[in-house]
């Protein structure tokens, strides 16, 4: 298991000495306002196959996809979060999955470089959006890097997935561009082709908490996650297989696919408030709430 960057030894020691369960299971969860970037599915379609969820022979209802996306956006706004919208572009049916087009931490932007040529042009549209919205520290990667699809920020560590899309070398590139320590994790099940299909961050801070599906990861990566996050919420196969781990949390409210009922029950037990949304049409392309949502981390 590769661990890039400094500070990891301190994190492991801190986790071992302090049990976060004493606070989180008895205290109240506090949401924090978030800044999100989204792109409407105006040109959504399943025209090619780049993951096991996609089937071009299965009909797609673009109007339904738009309604589901609008409801997801309204959900964020009702929770007090801001949502910026990047215009959709013809010929880019997967541009709705904004999480794959940038990683932003502390004002620094690391753009994306897609493995599939069908999505390659998305990266430049998002780069232009960042440049036009005041971002000056923008790095476009030299290695394959599918952004928040494979990067999850805990507030102290950047968890980085590889195995199907993002190159392992992109993890070191992310550390240099963003100036944060990176922990590499290997995915081994093609259904969970991005990290954000198998893991998401529930709460950030000194003792961050995650939810994840262990079977999506290599043996060594599971051990790393167990050491770093002993109080993680562990999902089962049923919730993973409806992309229930493709969730979005503000520290209290957790936006999940409608079908992720078992995971929702576990989250309630930990003091979180699950909020279900229907993303069934977008799931035909292998996407869920997080795929549609890039977060601008301060």
Summarize the structure.
Belongs to the DDAH family. This is Amidinotransferase. The chain is an alpha/beta fold and 298 residues long.
How does this model look, in words?
The model is unreliable at 1-26 (pLDDT under 50). The longest helix has 17 residues, at 62-78. The protein has 298 residues and is of the alpha/beta class. It is 25% helix and 20% strand. The chain has one domain (3-12, 29-297): 5-stranded Propeller (L-arginine/glycine Amidinotransferase, Chain A). The chain has helices spanning 8-17, 21-24, 62-78, 122-132, 169-178, 219-228, 237-240, 261-269, and strands spanning 3-4, 35-38, 82-85, 103-105, 108-110, 137-139, 151-153, 158-162, 182-186, 199-203, 209-212, 233-234, 248-249, 253-257, 273-277, 294-297. Helix 3 links the parallel strand 2 and strand 3. The strands form four sheets. A six-stranded mixed beta sheet has the order 3-2-16-4-5-6, with helices on both faces. This is Amidinotransferase. Keywords: Hydrolase. InterPro entries: DDAH-like.
Salient structural properties:
298 residues; alpha/beta; L-arginine/glycine Amidinotransferase, Chain A; six-stranded mixed β-sheet; four-stranded mixed β-sheet; disordered N terminus
Taken together, the total number of domains comes to 1
Q: Specify the structural class.
A: alpha/beta
> What is Rg?
18 Å
CATH architecture: 5-stranded Propeller
What integer is the average pLDDT?
92
Give the N-terminus to C-terminus distance in angstroms.
29 Å
Number of strands: 16
The CATH superfamily label reads L-arginine/glycine Amidinotransferase, Chain A
Tell me roughly what share of residues is in helical segments. 25-40%
In the CATH scheme, the class would be Alpha Beta
Count of helix runs: 8
Outline type? globular
Largest sheet: 6 strands, mixed
Q: Walk across the major sheet and give the strand order.
A: 3-2-16-4-5-6
Which parts are unreliable, with pLDDT below 50 for 5 consecutive residues or more?
Answer: 1-26
The CATH topology label is L-arginine/glycine Amidinotransferase, Chain A
């Amino acid at each position: 298991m590769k661990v890039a960057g400094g500070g990891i030894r301190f994190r492991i020691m801190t986790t071992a000495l302090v049990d976060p369960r004493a606070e989180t299971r008895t205290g109240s969860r506090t949401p924090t306002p978030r800044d999100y970037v989204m792109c409407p599915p105006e040109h959504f379609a399943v025209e090619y196959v780049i993951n096991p969820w996609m089937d071009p022979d299965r009909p797609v209802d673009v109007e339904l996809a738009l309604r589901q996306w609008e409801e997801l956006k309204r959900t964020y706004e009702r929770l007090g979060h801001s949502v910026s919208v990047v215009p959709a572009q013809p010929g880019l049916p997967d541009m709705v999955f904004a999480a794959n087009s940038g990683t932003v931490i502390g004002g620094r932007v690391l753009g994306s470089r897609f493995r599939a040529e069908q999505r390659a042009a998305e990266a430049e549209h998002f780069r232009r959006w960042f440049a036009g919205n005041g971002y000056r520290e923008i790095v476009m990667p030299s290695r394959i890097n599918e952004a928040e699809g494979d990067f999850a920020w805990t507030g102290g560590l950047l968890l980085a997935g590889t195995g199907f899309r993002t190159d392992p070398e992109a993890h070191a590139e992310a550390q240099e561009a963003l100036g944060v320590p990176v922990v590499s994790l290997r995915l081994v099940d093609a259904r969970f082709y991005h990290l954000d299909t198998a893991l998401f961050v529930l709460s950030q801070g000194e003792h961050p908490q995650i939810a994840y599906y262990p079977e999506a990861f290599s043996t060594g990566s599971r051990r790393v996650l167990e050491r770093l996050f002993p109080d993680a919420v562990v999902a089962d196969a049923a919730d993973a297989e409806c992309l229930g781990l493709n969730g979005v949390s503000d520290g209290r409210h957790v936006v999940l696919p409608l079908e992720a009922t078992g995971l929702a029950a576990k989250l309630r037990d930990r003091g979180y408030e699950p909020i279900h949304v229907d993303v069934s049409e977008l799931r035909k392309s292998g996407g869920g709430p997080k795929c549609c949502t890039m977060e601008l981390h301060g």
